[in-house]
Amino acid sequence: MKLYFIRHADPLYSLDSLTPKGWHEAELLAPRIKRIYETENVRTAYCSPLGRAQDTARVSLEPLGQTVVTKDWMLEFPAVMQMPEGYYRMPWDLLPAWWTTHEDLYDKDNWFRGPTMSRGGNVEEWYMRVAGGIDSILSEHGYRRDGHFYRTDGGNGDTLLFFCHLGVMFVMLSHMLSMPTPVLWQNFFVAPTSVTLVSTEEVVKGEVAMRVKYFGDVSHLYVAGERPSDSGFFAEYR
pTM for the whole thing? Predict the structure, then answer.
């Protein structure tokens, strides 16, 4: 089975839509999505309920006569954490000299239950909601979670698409790959309209590993001479 994770195009956050550049990026992505539908067994396209993801998906799917299944838990990860000073903030884009000193954030099983994230807020609640959401979809396609890997009674060649956001995408990936989410949030980046492919690997019959075949690919932009957007990536201090 193949899982394609597509980040939305360059966002216009004030309108929860796309910038002019974003609409152009979405148009450049569309032929790539069309090719996936032509060559693979696409069963379902899932999408965040937010406008920027819906707009990106629509540019690709409407010409194909395809629609999305909207999942509310796929919206950009909305959880907040409480800082030692008492205020609340989103749990990613933390300063490196701060978060790297908190060893509990490197615990793949309990980073969301450790003292850093459990002081206040709702990180654990939302993590469990997203992890349960992706596991439910995988179960519908014959792959059930067993500890830190998956089992299947009969693998398949289904292809699924996920039009979503950087933050929630990294939560899904971290769960499937059994990695601490903060490491992905703080050390990895995917550009708007980037495509990430995760595929199942069954070396032992019935025992399934989720393996990343490529990550954050924007070749559809480069071949068109379009520079990828840095939205969500912060420049060096000036």
Answer: 0.96
Residues 73-94: pLDDT tens digits? 999 999 999 999 999 999 998 9
DSSP 83-113: -TTS-EE-SSS--HHHHTT-GGGG-TTTTTT
- Token pair, residue 43, equals 């069963």
Upper half-sphere CA count for residue 154 (Cβ side, 13 Å): 1
CA distance 137 to 211: 17
β-bridge partners, 211: 199
Say how far apart CA 159 and CA 1 lie, in whole Å.
Answer: 6
187: confidence class by pLDDT, cuts 50, 70, 90 = very high
Task: Kindly state the tokens that stand for 95.
Answer: 């300063």
Which domains does the chain show, CATH number per domain? Answer: 2-76+126-222 (3.40.50.1240)
